[in-house]
Amino acid sequence: MAKNKDYTQLATEVVAAVGGKENITSVTNCMTRLRFTLKDDSIVDETEVKAVKGVKGVMNKGGQYQVIIGTEVSEVTPFVRKVLGISEEDQPVEKTDDGKKDTVFNRLFKAISGCILPMIGPLIAGGIIKGILVTCTTFGWLSDASGTYQVLYAAADSVMYFLPIIVGFTAGKVFGCNQYVTAAIGAALVYPSLATALSGEAQLTFLGIPLTYVDYTQTLLPILLASYVASWVEKFAKKIVPTMLQLMIVPTIVLIIVVPLSWLAIGPVMNTVSTVLSDTVVGIFNFSPILGGILFGAFWQLMVLLGLHAAFIPVLLNNIFTMGYDPINAILGLTVWALAGVSLGYALKMKDPEKKSIGFGGMASCLCGVTEPTIYSIALPQIKCFAAAWIGGGIAGGILAALGGKMYTFAGDGLFRFPAMINPEGLDISFYGFIACALLAFAVAGAITFVVADRDK
């Protein structure tokens, strides 16, 4: 077995370059980036950070200072935490009580990403399993009445079905309150016997106030607001309850207040907001699907690079939760294939073995859903190659939008996006159209890159 690489020097230099231990509030990572929450990002010397061997670039977006490492970032993060002297569990909830004024957008983005990102892995896994199951039933390899199907479908659908419980748990940490209490609030929203009773003919009331039935399975916004309210109720309760009684009495107060409030007001209001939000966004997209497909297909990766994609994340998630599909996210998956084509075109054009390796490595990374190596190693240094991706993605995006392609569940990008395009009713144009458009984006971007890429740069 190969020995794990030692990233102590890289971690030490990065920590020093972003202002040292005293300037770092917390650190996490995504697939390619170290994400620092800093007390003061104005003191960071960006040139010094970029000069660290192993750093591919930096971004300061969404309230986080992001140091781009590459696909080995998950191995680097523990070394950074070791240098900082903290563990993953020890990291404080991200707040702005240090006197630094934060924007409403940054606070909202931090809250949503903090609640959603921890469960992205299981959500994607569920989407892949659902795609496999639909394929198996479509071709008659498996019956949806079989025990095998039922068990695997439960594994795939459990995260989505019980989303309020899982989001409630992560929201508790984000909002700085008891995670198990916020998870219990989420459980109360999907409690089977109460949901069954409310969906019946008899009208139920709470202290004389009528209760309205809403199906909160696979919902996001109601539990987010309920958890936020719970955090304030908990803070108030701790002020009035003696310390020796807080363990029992504070959760009691929070549940007694927030659970009824969630059923009476928070849930119905936020469920309406979710529906209106999805209807509005999809309505705008449907007003001119081809134009929308061209623009999203061409420039989504540029929006990701600039950090502007953060505003769309809640909307894209909400579309799946509310409608069961998302036409916009279907287009976005094509942008990854366009960058994979750029990588291949670059690799074929280059004569230098190291540059060829960068190209083929970037293509492999894109096909696994990670585009940063291609963006920072090829597309940005040679902007014409980035333009090739815009053209390939824009053409493919316009065609898929015209075909009415939809994404039906969560999955990864690249090759892992295919299961998400499978309609639960069976294979249709969303699946076949996406494959054809992905190959088109790949071919067009690759061909243009082969022509415009500069061997000497």
TrEMBL record:
Oxidoreductase as UniProt keyword: no
InterPro entries associated with the record: Glu_permease_IIB (IPR036878), PTrfase_EIIB_Cys (IPR018113), PTS_EIIC (IPR003352), PTS_EIIC_1 (IPR013013), PTS_IIB_1 (IPR001996), PTS_Sugar-Specific_Components (IPR050558)
UniProt topology in membrane: Multi-pass membrane protein
Active site: 30 (phosphocysteine intermediate)
Keywords: Cell membrane, Kinase, Membrane, Phosphotransferase system, Sugar transport, Transferase, Transmembrane, Transmembrane helix, Transport
Gene3D superfamilies: Glucose permease domain IIB
Primary residence: membrane
CDD domains: PTS_IIB_glc
Subcellular location: Cell membrane
Keyword Transmembrane helix: yes
Residue ranges constituting the PTS EIIB type-1 domain according to the UniProt record: 8-90
PROSITE patterns, sorted: PTS_EIIB_TYPE_1 (PS51098), PTS_EIIB_TYPE_1_CYS (PS01035), PTS_EIIC_TYPE_1 (PS51103)
TM ranges: 108-129, 149-169, 181-199, 249-270, 290-316, 328-348, 360-379, 386-409, 429-453
Record-annotated PTS EIIC type-1 domain positions: 110-457
Positions in coiled-coil regions: none
Name of the protein: PTS system beta-glucosides-specific IIC component
Organism: Breznakia pachnodae
Taxon lineage: Bacteria, Bacillati, Bacillota, Erysipelotrichia, Erysipelotrichales
